[in-house]
Amino acid sequence: MDHYDPDILTEEAFQKRFHYKNPTDDKWKIPQCAIFSCEGGVVGGLSGVKEGLNEVKSSLNHYEIQKWNKHTTFVNPSGKVLNVLRRRIQPELSTQAWCKFHELLSYGNVIPTNCGAGDTLCSVHLCEAPGGFIASLNHHLKSQRPNVKHKWVGNTLNPYYEGNPLSSCIVDDRLISRTLKSWCFGQDNTGDVFKPEFMDSLSAHCHNEFDDATIGLVTADGSLNCADKPGEQETVVAPLHHVEMLDALQLLCSGGTFVM
Ligand SMILES: C[S@@+](CC[C@H](N)C(=O)[O-])C[C@H]1O[C@@H](n2cnc3c(N)ncnc32)[C@H](O)[C@@H]1O
To answer: Contact, 94 vs 82, CB < 8 A?
Structure first.
């Protein structure tokens, strides 16, 4: 900790953690019947918050994008963290996602409690290119829990499938090209989690890779380019989050961890 600028350590942005508890009336129970069977609606005061947020975002419209990027890079304290990490530990993939997952792993509770020395952690990583979460998990296990074995399966839009629009794929394939056997791109090789047959392919892939062992950790970090609809980011990514959630619930063992 001595190496970090004290301003960074006290930065409010690094203290943001929220704890949620199932209300006593059990409102959060997963419905036993068909899901999404009622009309959608507006939640409490959220539509007002959305309007306010988009109004603030619009007040930036007249700034030149390069100038604005320069400014946000300059005032972003996380940028300094990445530089220190690059110099000190040279992560396999030094990206913001690597740091994000390292932070989550450091808080604890991500690796299931029953996964101890001599056990094998089986993990699945949805929408994962270029693979920062996987590299970060590998680093954490090797350095903090060297006696835990690790098997993993990754998925993402296949950057080698020419039918996938380049704009939706991450072209950085440094990890994927070296670990191709561990990636599941589905029957049609697109890697698209929306394809109806994808889940069957993924289950079969995990079955082979994990020798029937249960899956203790699923991550899903899917995102889409919302540049043409910046005010509707949540609506645009909601279907992807929905599919990721359904896949994770089918894959995970009881007591496993889901990071979305
Ligand atoms: C923010 S990146 C994930 C970063 C990753 N967690 C990491 O640590 O490097 C979002 C990913 O979602 C993927 N993605 C978007 N739509 C997808 C879909 N329909 N099926 C599979 N992957 C998708 C993108 O290709 C991209 O790789």
So the answer is: yes
Read off the pLDDT of each residue in 197-206 and give the average, rounded to a whole number: 97
* Alpha carbons 97 and 92: distance in angstroms, whole number: 12
Among the atoms of ligand 1, which is closest to the Cα of residue 97? 8
Say if ligand 1 is within 6 A of residue 68 CB. Answer: no
C-alpha count within 13 angstroms, C-beta hemisphere, residue 150: 24
Q: Give the position, in ligand 1's atom list, of the atom nearest the Cα of 130.
A: 9
In this prediction, residues 245-255 reach a mean pLDDT of: 95
89 vs 33, 83, 92, 99, 129, CA distance in Å?
A: 49, 10, 9, 12, 22
**110 Cα: distance to centroid of ligand 1 (angstroms):** 20
| Ligand 1 atom nearest to 100, measured from its CA | 8
**Residue 166 pLDDT > 70:** yes
In the chain, domain spans: 1-15+46-90, 98-260
Q: Which fold has domain 98-260?
A: Rossmann fold (3.40.50)
What integer pLDDT is reported at residue 204 of this predicted model? 97
Pocket mutation for ligand 1, best pick of 157, 197, 201, 217 (most atoms within 8 Å of C-beta): 157
Rounded average pLDDT over 125-136: 98
Angle at 196 between CA 194 and CA 197, to 5 degrees: 115
